[in-house]
Design brief:
Elements (H helix, E strand, L loop, with lengths): L2 H10 L4 E3 L6 E5 L3 H11 L8 E3 L6 H4 E2 L3 H10 L4 E7 L5 H4 L4 E5 L4 H10 L3 E2 L14 H8 L5 E2 L12 E4 L6 E4 L5 H8 L37 E4 L1 H13 L4 E5 L13 E4 L4 H16 L5 E5 L8 H13 L4
Parallel strand pairs: 1-8, 3-6, 5-9, 11-14, 12-13, 12-14
Antiparallel strand pairs: 1-2, 2-7, 3-7, 4-5, 5-6, 9-10
This protein binds threonylcarbamoyladenylate and magnesium ion.
């Protein structure tokens, strides 16, 4: 039996399997088995009213999970699946409340990682999977991150190497009159509009997209301000503030960690620095982000200073994750 076949058997038996996707690693359970899905919430320490994304082997499975599927869903699926786009659609009646958190909608996507697709095709059903981290922590982008986060709580971890995209999928709500991006990701609003040709709702740049639903429950758990967070306090600062803070910290014998776009200036040479030079390309920055935050978090520094990226559309998803990392940092 191959490892993927074993993983599919475990899913059929109601167990949890972690698997790589192109975005981040997922913690999977059989989406049609409520008691298996309940194990995800227990393993993550995630509140039960936070809905899960159901991963599908291909777009033809949409009809098993959603109703009143708009043409735009099929157009976007044809353009971007397999890929980092989650569609929120009206749920089919059979979809368990454990998956949807009791909402009238369901999140669906076909992931692009070959191992994820192999697993989904072998399992031949929907796999409910949030990111494979403890609730509120940084999402895992390697199999090692998953075992560090969840250890014995997961029956099997499929190792597909580091994730290509590195941040979670774009979430697009197609369940209401105007499509709305609930979480920015590698697929941008422009990418979507180019395919659908219709307008789209987007939060203003520089704000986080906190979108409570009518009952006051966050529709997207990633929309909680305190999310994706390291335990070391993290601050978003300017390039000048980075230098001022590092200089001040060195003077008092404190160690601060830095993620900045330039290497440290020559005048700081010889000092004990924990400094990462970030990539200036937003896709590469996103690819490296969570692994870098984990590494900086593990240095034992008293603070992580991150140089604020440009407030441009191309940096939207990265800025979104950094703001949440800052808001949730320093809590454990
Ligand atoms: O890239 C990804 O989307 C990764 C990989 C594993 O596919 N998954 C992921 O799952 O990020 P998770 O649970 O960490 O984040 C999914 C977000 C949650 O914040 C959840 O609230 C939101 O999707 N979501 C799921 N179903 C929803 C629904 N019906 N309405 C609104 N938001 C929903
Ligand atoms: Mg998550």
């Amino acid at each position: 039996m191959t490892e993927v076949q074993r993983a599919a058997e475990l899913l059929r038996a109601g167990e949890l399997v972690a698997f790589p996707t192109e975005t981040v690693y997922g913690l999977g359970a059989d989406a049609s088995n409520p008691s298996a899905v309940a194990k995800i919430f227990a393993a993550k320490g995630r509140p039960a009213d936070h809905p899960l994304i159901v991963h599908l082997p291909e777009a033809s499975h949409l009809v098993h999970w959603a109703v009143e599927i708009p043409d735009a869903a099929y157009q976007l699926a044809a353009a971007f699946w397999p890929g980092p786009l989650t569609l929120i659609l009206k749920r089919a009646v059979a979809v368990s409340d454990t998956v949807t958190g009791g909402q009238e909608t369901v999140g669906l996507r076909v992931p692009a990682h070959p191992l994820a697709l192999d697993l989904l095709r072998t399992f031949n059903g929907g796999i409910a999977a949030p990111s494979a981290n403890r609730f509120g922590h940084i999402s895992p982008t390697t199999a090692r991150h998953v075992s560090d986060e969840l250890g014995e709580r997961v029956s099997l971890i499929l190792d597909g190497g580091p994730c290509a995209v590195g941040i979670e999928s774009t979430i697009l709500d197609l369940s209401r009159a105007t499509p709305e991006i609930l979480r920015p990701g590698a697929i941008s609003a422009d990418d979507i509009v180019r395919v659908t040709g219709t307008g789209i709702k987007l939060a203003p740049l520089g704000t986080t997209t906190d979108i409570p639903d009518t009952a006051g429950v966050p529709r997207v758990s990633g929309s909680l301000a305190a999310h994706y967070a390291p335990s070391t306090p993290l601050q978003l600062v300017s390039a000048t503030e980075v230098l001022d803070c590092v200089t001040a910290a060195l003077a008092t014998g404190q160690r601060v960690a830095v993620l900045a776009f330039a290497p440290p200036p020559a005048r700081l040479a010889g000092n004990p620095l924990c400094w990462r030079a970030a990539d200036t390309d937003p896709a590469t920055y996103a690819h490296d982000l969570y692994a870098t935050l984990r590494e900086l978090d593990a240095t034992g520094c008293v603070r992580i200073l991150v140089q604020r990226p440009p407030q441009d559309e191309v940096w939207r998803a990265v800025n979104d994750r950094l703001q949440r990392a800052a808001a949730g940092s320093g809590q454990s």
